[in-house]
Amino acid sequence: MDDEQEVIVAICKYVYLNWISEAKSQRDFAAICDIEESTVRRIKNIALGTSKTEYNMSVKTIAKICRKKEITLEELFQNIKK
């Protein structure tokens, strides 16, 4: 796995474990964050290691999730780094 993909996996794991898994449903999380439900499923599959494909999550998607969770991108990356 290359460095870029490792970063995406780390982001997906953080988002899934801290927010998606705590949400009422994947559909609810998608609606709250203004992202597609298929994106939420993709994040979950990458986080759980059940996806057979790589995922190139956009900065726009990450920013939308962070905005709704009221943290900055910097805070997200600091949390992931811990």
From TrEMBL:
Protein name as it appears in the record: Transcriptional regulator
Molecular function (GO) terms for this protein are: DNA binding
Which Gene3D superfamilies does this chain map to?
Answer: lambda repressor-like DNA-binding domains
From which source organism is this entry? Chryseobacterium muglaense
- Supply the InterPro entries for this chain: Lambda_DNA-bd_dom_sf (IPR010982)
